[in-house]
């Protein structure tokens, strides 16, 4: 993960595109540290969560989480993901998910835990845990809090791959915009519309 600041904005960028930006132990540790750093920096006014590559985040590193070593499980498993989600939810500065690539599994939790979320209209989302026989238990707490109840239950239980417009309708993200506009997104204060 990269941490950069510019003009009051701290950007935390998931930068392991070859692995589809999975949430492994190191990434989750770095995310918590980056959020703490941004929260404590008086020059930072907003925190942006971004990613490199075709995937925003493919979710948890199942290989690391299934390792027999208990310390590995703690470092990369549910407790570590809870720490990241709490870091986003408790951040004293506004957090924005800038979603340029596909989102699966735990990546949906990252998006839901941010105060605002904007995605490219070409992006697809999937609560893919159900396809491997796992309930999206940890992320369901933050996701169902954001989404309309019936939409949330449908998306979490069916695990279908759906376009950004569908998750915007469900309430997981604020809006879906053309891919080349994700980096330039702004909200018009008069109309309340995103453009």
Regarding CATH, which class? Alpha Beta
Give start-end ranges of low-pLDDT stretches. 67-74
Number of strands: 10
The biggest beta sheet, please? 6 strands, mixed
Proportion of β residues?
Answer: 15-25%
Number of domains: 1
Instruction: State the order of secondary-structure elements, H for helix, E for strand.
Output: EEHEEHHHEEHEEHHEHE
DSSP helix count?
8
Would you identify the CATH architecture? Answer: Alpha-Beta Complex
Q: Indicate the structural class.
A: alpha/beta
Major sheet strand order: 1-2-3-5-7-10
> Which percent range fits the helix content?
25-40%
Question: Please, could you describe this protein's structure?
Answer:
The structure is a single chain. The protein contains eight helices and ten strands. It is of the alpha/beta class and 195 residues long. The protein has a single domain (2-184), classed as 2-enoyl-CoA Hydratase, Chain A, domain 1 (Alpha-Beta Complex). The strands form two sheets. The chain has a six-stranded mixed beta sheet. A four-stranded mixed beta sheet has the order 4-6-8-9. Helix 5 (107-113) packs parallel to helix 6 and helix 6 (137-146) runs antiparallel to helix 7. The protein is globular.
């Amino acid at each position: 993960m990269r941490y950069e600041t510019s003009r009051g904005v701290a950007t935390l960028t998931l930068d392991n595109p070859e692995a589809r930006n999975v949430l492994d132990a190191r990434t989750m540790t770095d995310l918590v540290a980056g959020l703490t750093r941004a929260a404590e920096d008086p020059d930072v006014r907003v925190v942006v969560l971004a990613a490199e590559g075709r995937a925003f985040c493919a979710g948890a590193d199942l290989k690391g989480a299934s390792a027999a070593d208990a310390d590995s499980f703690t470092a990369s498993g549910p407790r570590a993901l809870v720490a990241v989600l709490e870091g986003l939810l408790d951040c004293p500065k506004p957090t924005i998910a800038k979603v340029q690539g596909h989102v699966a599994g735990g990546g949906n939790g990252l998006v839901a835990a941010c105060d605002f979320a904007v995605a490219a209209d070409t992006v697809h989302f999937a609560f893919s845990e159900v396809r491997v026989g796992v309930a999206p238990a940890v992320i369901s707490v933050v996701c169902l809090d954001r989404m309309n109840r019936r939409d949330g239950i449908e998306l979490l239980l069916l695990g279908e791959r759906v376009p950004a417009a569908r998750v915007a309708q469900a309430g997981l993200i604020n809006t879906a915009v053309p891919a080349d506009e994700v980096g330039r997104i702004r909200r018009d204060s008069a109309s309340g519309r995103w453009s």
